[in-house]
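Hey, quick one: can you model this chain's 3D structure?
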Amino acid sequence: MIKLAASDIDGTLVPEGTNELNADIYEVIRELQKKGILFAAASGRHYSSMRYLFDKIAEDIFFVTENGSCVLKNEEIISMTYIPPETAEAIVKYLHSRGVTEIILSTPETLYTESPFEEFHKGLRELHIKVEVVKDLLPYCKKTNKIAVYQREEPEKLEKELQERFGEMLNVVKAGTFWIDCMDKKADKGIALGRLQEKLHITRAETMAFGDNCNDIGMIKQAGESYAVANAHPALKAAAKYEVPSYQEDGVLRTLKEKLLAESDK
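Sure thing. Here's the predicted structure for all 266 residues.
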């Protein structure tokens, strides 16, 4: 019996980088809770953005934020994994040397960026993310749980470079079409889901998970019932047991209804 359902957000529940969530998900999650099934939203997004998206039921669900580097419920931190300061400084300096300007340092409270582009700031704030623009990111490397890079030109090339240079120290994952996320080796959606399962005394076999991109692979492998949406990356599809319709067709919502609500009513 499934006791916990976890789902990625961008590309899985909503179009990437939007707040276009089907409001029916709120009622479905409430119905799941009545049947003893918990829900966790798992994303590369900052907590402030995720909290806004699920505001109507935020007090009742778990948040796996920043690709698993932080897990919360009701503002209480369940687990937190920071990047070692010297490693954070090294990657920021390398990105500076490459001329990369759209860099974000995350903390549980806010995001920091030195990007000079107002459109970049605007895009983040439209997702209801707390953003502070600073002159230099290096002083903020002492306490960051994720470094994200927005790279429109050849993001795969930069991802490969970062993996080659920092892969032994960091998890470097593609988190969206143009986003690359870097976290400590102990920070991963799968590791975070495992910690949550341990806290809730829920097994892998009692867990269902949905995703669309490579940063969801760990989470997919940590769930007994794993689903890739139709628009998912090939690597994610290969890791998942099943495939469901894309976010355009509300594949996650339909599966929760059909597999958990309808079956439990039989």
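One thing worth noting: The chain is about 35% helix and 25% strand.
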